[in-house]
Write a structure and sequence with these properties.
Bound molecules: 2-amino-4-trifluoromethylsulfanyl-butyric acid, cobalt (II) ion
Largest sheet: 4 strands, antiparallel
Radius of gyration: 17 Å
Shape: globular
Order of helices and strands: HHEEEEEHHEEEEEEEEEEE
Oligomer: single chain
CATH superfamily: Creatinase/methionine aminopeptidase superfamily
Strand content: 25-35%
Number of domains: 1
Helix content: 25-40%
Structural class: alpha+beta
Low-confidence stretches: none
Number of strands: 16
Distance between the termini: 28 Å
Amino acid sequence: MKIHIKNQEEIKKIKISSKLASEVLEMISEYMTVNTNLEKINKICHKHIIEKQNAIPACLGYRGYPKSICISINDVVCHGIPNKKQYLKEGDIANVDITILKNGYYGDTSKMFFIGKIKETAKKLCEITKKSLYLTFKKIKPGIPINIIGKTIEQETKKSGFSIVKEYCGHGIGKNFHEEPQILHYYNRYQNTLLQENMVFTIEPMINEGKSYVKLMKDNWTVKTQDKSLSAQYEHTILVTKTGCKILTKRKKEKIPYEFNNI
Ligand code: MF3
Ligand code: CO
Ligand code: CO
């Protein structure tokens, strides 16, 4: 129930971890091509995080998760486990989710990659998912209720006919991988806690092309859409500032500001 408001020392460390997480997504981009083996992608990220970044891939061993990153392809909603028998193929849409632990603090981000030429609807799904996340950045500031975030994502998604996954949400982050508050990606009237300066949390909408229902696979991690339709996700770690927010996991090539002024 208690939301931890971060002090300057903590914010400094979360900024470092977040930047490292975003840099892994930049680094791996060139490997996200047809015929790349998924375990190879996991290995490259693992090695980069440990050797180049001197950091810890937070997913590895988290509640028994067996790999260093998540790769979720096509109808996989989230928590896809990279497998050595699996290869990227033409037309795939693939989410890579990276969480870094460094100096005792976490940073968490994910994005979609397009493998070769993808279908128009797949592209549209990814674009709307990304846009729904970006629109929330224009709303965030101290004093607004948390459910404005879900409301914004819902409004943007509704127009498209796509659906929002309800089972997984964004989360406070800092000394813990997942902490209060929960950030729902749909509107909930009871989620009316007010945002405060120096809160840090992720927003990570998962949007399905078809119905919103998901199923957990036998490995107890991989989540798929029930109707086998495509699913997309983008995730950023956000700091609430006095006048808006900062996107701590912003990548260099991403066409959004690092800092939003919403007063
Ligand atoms: N990074 C995911 C999130 O956004 C969590 C992955 S947990 C794992 O919260 F164990 F599957 F890696
Ligand atoms: Co997250
Ligand atoms: Co994540």
